[in-house]
Design goal:
With 466 residues, the chain is an alpha/beta fold. The protein has 4 domains: 14-141, Response regulator (Rossmann fold, 3-Layer(aba) Sandwich); 149-322, Rossmann fold (3-Layer(aba) Sandwich), CATH 3.40.50.300; 325-393, Helicase, Ruva Protein, domain 3 (Orthogonal Bundle); 415-463, Homeodomain-like (Arc Repressor Mutant, subunit A). It is built from 19 helices and 14 strands. The protein has helices at 22-33, 45-54, 71-81, 96-104, 117-148, 158-170, 187-196, 215-223, 240-243, 259-271, 297-302, 308-314, 331-345, 355-363, 369-383, 415-418, 423-437, 442-449, 453-463; strands spanning 14-18, 38-42, 59-63, 86-91, 109-112, 177-180, 205-209, 248-252, 273-275, 282-284, 288-293, 317-320, 352-353, 388-389. The chain has a 5-stranded parallel sheet with strand order 2-1-3-4-5, with helices on both faces. Strands 7-8-11-6-12 form a 5-stranded parallel sheet. A two-stranded antiparallel ribbon has the order 9-10. Helix 1 (22-33) packs across helix 5, helix 2 runs parallel beside helix 3 and helix 17 crosses helix 18. It starts with 13 loop residues before the first strand and ends with a helix.
C-alpha cells in the first residue's frame, strides 16, 4: 500500500465519490482506496444525496457538472446533512468564477480535469488531516467533559445530588460564584465543572492560588506588568486576567488575598478593565470569576481582614461543599473509583478491598476529606503486594489502634457487655452498626457482612431496623 496521511488513529476516513462518468468515478475511488481510504461511489447527483442522507462520510469528492443535481447543490446538501465533512469539487469546465463560487460556498478545494490522481490524493490527504484534527478536538472535549464535567463529581448521596443540581443551574450563567468548603472537599474540581459546562468551555480556565504569593507577586500574576515596572521586570508580561480573556478565572483561597489587592480586584469587577503593574493604560477583559475559600469570610470581614463590598461581589452565587463525613454513603463509590484510578496509574493489579479495610475506611472521620481518602487509597495501592487491600496496607494514621499487649483496641461495646445477649440480639446489633458505618448503603453493608442483599433486607425487616 502506498504511503499516505490517512487515518493514523481511529477508523479509516470514509470518502464519498460522486461522478456521472462511471469510469472516472471508479478511477478516483480506486486511487484513494489504494492509500487506505474507504470509498463509496455514487453514479449521479441524486444517488450522492441518498448516500449523504445515510451519513458517515468525512470527505466528499464530487464532479461539478452533473445533470439533475450538480456539484454545488451536492455541496449545499453536504453542509446541511454533514456539516463537518470536507467537499472537494472536480470539473472539466473550470473558470475563475466557478472556482470562487465553490470556495465561497465552503468547498475544501477545487480540481480540474483531466485529473492528476497524485494531486487528488494530495488534496484528499490535506482534507483528511483537517478531519483528524477535528477528531482529536472532539475526543479532547469528550475527555474534558469526562474529567471535569458533573460526572467527575463522584457520589450518589443527597448532598451530592443537591450540589450537582445547583451546579447545573449555575454553570450556564455568567454570575460570579463563591465556592466554600473545608480543605480537600474538591473546590477546584467544582470550579472546573462549572467552567466545562458553561458557554465559556472552549476558552481558557485559569487558576491562581492567592495564598501562595506575596502581595507584589500576586498583583503581577493577576494583572501582568510592563518592562521596568520593578527590578526583575525585564519584559512585558501578560497576567492571569488577560490570559483568561473570554474564559474563566478561578481564584483559590481568595480569603487570604491581601487588602490592597482586594481593592484592585474590586475595581476590575466593577469596570471590566485591568491595568498592568507599572502602566497607566487600562485593558478591557471579559472574564468570569469563580473563587473559593475554606475561611469564614464573614468573620474575616468583622475582623477587618476582608472587604465586605468585595465579598458581595464575589458571592453573587454561593456553593457550599459538604464534608466527606456528611456524605459517608459516597465513601464506597469513592474507594472503588480511587482504587481503579491508582491501580491504573501505578500499573498494579488490585483484585479487591477486604471487608476489614472497608470498615476502617468507612468509620474514619476524614478531617482532610476526599483528598485525604484519595491519598490514603493511593498509599494502599502502592504498598500492596498481594492484590487485596487490607488493614496491613492502611497508612499509619488510619491503622487500628492497639493495646499495650499488641491486641486491637476495642472501639465498640466490650466483650463483657455482649455476654448473655441472644444470637438474634447480637445479629441485630451488628447489622445496625454496619448500616450506620455505611450511612444506610445496604449494598455495601451486605458486602461487609458477607451476606446477600436479599438476606439483609429480610433481616432489616425482621429486626425492625431503619
Amino acid at each position: 500500500m502506498a504511503s499516505s496521511t490517512t487515518a493514523t488513529t481511529g477508523p479509516p476516513i470514509q470518502v464519498l465519490v460522486v461522478d456521472n462518468d462511471p469510469a472516472h468515478a471508479e478511477a478516483m475511488a480506486d486511487s484513494l482506496s489504494r492509500v487506505g481510504y474507504q470509498c463509496v461511489v455514487a453514479g449521479s447527483g441524486p444517488e450522492g444525496v441518498e448516500q449523504l442522507e445515510r451519513g458517515g462520510f468525512e470527505i466528499v469528492v464530487s464532479d461539478l457538472k452533473m445533470p439533475g443535481v450538480g456539484g454545488l447543490e451536492l455541496l449545499e446538501k453536504s453542509k446541511e446533512l454533514l456539516p463537518d465533512a470536507q467537499v472537494v469539487l472536480v470539473t472539466g469546465h473550470g473558470t475563475v468564477e466557478s472556482a470562487v463560487e465553490a470556495m465561497r460556498q465552503g468547498a475544501f478545494n477545487y480540481l480540474l480535469k483531466p485529473l492528476d490522481l497524485k494531486q487528488l490524493r494530495a488534496v484528499v490527504d490535506n482534507a483528511a488531516r483537517s478531519q483528524h484534527l477535528r477528531r482529536a478536538n472532539t475526543e479532547l472535549a469528550r475527555r474534558l467533559d469526562e474529567k471535569f464535567g458533573f460526572e467527575s463529581i463522584i457520589g450518589n448521596s443527597q448532598p451530592v445530588r443537591e450540589l450537582i443540581d445547583r451546579l447545573r443551574r449555575i454553570a450556564p450563567t455568567d454570575a460570579t460564584v463563591l465556592i466554600q468548603g473545608e480543605t480537600g472537599t474538591g473546590k477546584e474540581l467544582v470550579a472546573q465543572a462549572i467552567h466545562q459546562n458553561s458557554p465559556r468551555k472552549n476558552r481558557p480556565f485559569v487558576g491562581l492560588n492567592c495564598a501562595a504569593l506575596s502581595e507584589n507577586i500576586l498583583e503581577s500574576e493577576l494583572f501582568g506588568h510592563i518592562r521596568g515596572a520593578f527590578t526583575d521586570a525585564a519584559h512585558d508580561r501578560v497576567g492571569k486576567f488577560e490570559y483568561a480573556d473570554g474564559g474563566t478565572l478561578f481564584l483559590d483561597e481568595v480569603g487570604d488575598m491581601p487588602l490592597p489587592t482586594q481593592i484592585k480586584l474590586l475595581r476590575v469587577l466593577e469596570s471590566g478593565e485591568i491595568t498592568r503593574v507599572g502602566s497607566n493604560e487600562p485593558v478591557r477583559v471579559n472574564v468570569r470569576i469563580l473563587s473559593a475559600t475554606n475561611r469564614d469570610l464573614e468573620t474575616a470581614i468583622a475582623a477587618g481582614a476582608f472587604r465586605e463590598d468585595l465579598y458581595h461581589r464575589l458571592k453573587v452565587i454561593s456553593v457550599r461543599l459538604p464534608r466527606l463525613v456528611e456524605r459517608r454513603e459516597d465513601i464506597p463509590l469513592l474507594i472503588d473509583y480511587f482504587v481503579r484510578m491508582h491501580a491504573t496509574r501505578h500499573k498494579k493489579q488490585v483484585k479487591s478491598v477486604s471487608a476489614a479495610a472497608r470498615r476502617r475506611l468507612l468509620a474514619y472521620e476524614w478531617p482532610g476529606n476526599v483528598r485525604q481518602l484519595k491519598n490514603a487509597i493511593e498509599s494502599m495501592v502502592v504498598v500492596d503486594y498481594d492484590g487485596v487491600l487490607d488493614l496491613d496496607d492502611l497508612p499509619p494514621d488510619l491503622a487500628p489502634k492497639q493495646e499495650a499487649d499488641g491486641s486491637p483496641m476495642d472501639s465498640g461495646a466490650s466483650m463483657a457487655e455482649l455476654v448473655g445477649k441472644s444470637m438474634s440480639d447480637l445479629e441485630a446489633l451488628f447489622i445496625g452498626e454496619t448500616l450506620k458505618v455505611t450511612a444506610g448503603n445496604r449494598e455495601e453493608a451486605a458486602k461487609m457482612l458477607g451476606i446477600g442483599e436479599r438476606t439483609l433486607y429480610r433481616k432489616i425487616k425482621e429486626y425492625g431496623l431503619n
